[in-house]
Amino acid sequence: MPTLTRWFIKTALVYFILALIAGIISAVSNLPGLFPVYIHLLVEGWITLLIIGVVIWMFPKYSRELPRGNEKLGWTSYILLNTGLVLRLVSEPLNTLGEAPESLWGVLLVISAILQWLGGMAFVVNTWSRVKVK
Amino acid sequence: MPRLSSWFVRAALSYLAVGFTLGALLLAEKASSFYPMLWDILPVHIELLLVGWLVQLALGVAFWILPRFSKGPPRGNEAVVWLSFVLLNLGIAFVVAGTLLAVPGLLLAGRVAETGGVLAFVWGSWRRVRPTVP
User: Fold this and answer.
1) Yes or no, beta carbons of A132 and B3 under 8 Å apart
2) In chain B, domain spans
3) What is the pLDDT of residue A101?
4) Is the pLDDT score of B43 beyond 90?
5) Do residues B52 and B71 make contact, with C-beta atoms less than 8 angstroms apart?
6) Cis check: omega of the bond before A101, within 30 degrees of 0
7) Residues of B with Cβ-Cβ distance to A92 under 8 angstroms
8) pLDDT at B49
């Protein structure tokens, strides 16, 4: 299993645990920004990162020299997706609470949106050329 | 991977790209309230990522890796699974159009088409879920 796949899958497992904890907390508290965090920890952090890790590992090789396409782009995708998601976990509930400094949490949330989007696009671009018919 | 899987996977990657783009816009909207009407596309964001990305990728990979038959067509009745691909994607398009145009009939037609797509996939793949000879 490639190193990048291991990082994606182990990180996904951590998000899985965090998601379930967030689910427990949101069941006993009224923190309004927590439910979307719970959903995105599950669907993006757990399921999507797990899929990305397996895709990098199992999809047809790009070429003999570069079996997994542009590996730097793969790592870039990993860093962007995770930085964006972690930033969201922190800034979304705090932004919803509206506590000072509200504008800072809003700015961090916008940055989180941009990072996650860039990470997703990096994965799509790097994977597209590995979808090969045999 | 077989041609039909490449269509499923490329469609899934396309929906991931569009779904992530809508998600990033929604998250930025949450932070800065630049266009509150944008929240009307929340169901589209969910539809594209759940059905367009996750469900479709699973179907494409399943068609690729499930055990093949040694006699006859290796992946069974491919025409039925092509029908599944067409129905699922028509369904997604109808659901998105029905949501954006607020036409309940289109939304219903989309859900029915998606169900038909999944039924066709189950029909085409059921016999491939079997023990493999070591």
Assistant:
1) no
2) 3-128
3) 60
4) yes
5) no
6) yes
7) 27, 30
8) 98
Q: How many residues does chain B have?
A: 134
Amino acid at A67: P
pLDDT digits (tens, 9 = 90+) for A72-109: 999 999 999 999 999 999 999 888 877 656 688 899 99
Closest chain A C-alpha to B62 CA, distance in angstroms: 13
Q: Give the span between the Cα atoms of B19 and B11, in whole angstroms.
A: 12
d(CA A62, CA B14): 19
Question: By the 8 A CB rule, do A68 and A61 touch?
Answer: yes
Tokens of B32: 């800065």
Q: Is the peptide bond before A67 cis (omega within 30 degrees of 0)?
A: no
The two structure tokens encoding residue A132: 């090969």
**Cα angle for residues B127, B15, A47 (degrees, 5° grid):** 65
User: What amino acid occupies position B69?
Assistant: F
Inter-chain CB proximity B6 and A43 less than 8 Å:
no
Residues A111 and A102: their CA atoms lie apart, in Å, by: 14
Letter for the amino acid at B106? Answer: L
CA distance A3 to chain B (A): 22
Q: What is the ipTM of this complex?
A: 0.93
For the entire predicted model, the pTM comes to 0.94
